[in-house]
Design goal:
By secondary structure, this protein is mainly alpha-helical. The chain has two domains: 34 residues, no CATH class; 32 residues, no CATH class. It has three helices and no strands. α1 packs across α2. The chain is elongated and about 70 Å long. The mean pLDDT is 82.
């Protein structure tokens, strides 16, 4: 017995939403040119740790700027 899309979506709402969300992600993954940076989230952690250590590793804190 073959289910139509409407009856399938009523019977299985979560898999329907997941499958519908998968389509644009796959299209984006296939046609993407790559990603920008893999370590950009480390910049936030690095700055916060520098603040905690009391050390300005790249002179970005206001009291070290001229």
């Amino acid at each position: 017995m073959r289910l139509s899309f409407n009856s399938f979506s009523l019977k299985y709402p979560l898999p329907t939403v997941l499958l519908l969300a998968l389509v644009p992600r796959l299209v984006a993954a296939i046609f993407s040119k790559g990603y920008g940076m893999h370590d950009d989230h480390f910049l936030v952690i690095e700055a916060a740790q520098s603040w905690l250590d009391g050390f300005d590793y790249n002179r970005w804190l206001p009291w070290n700027q001229s």
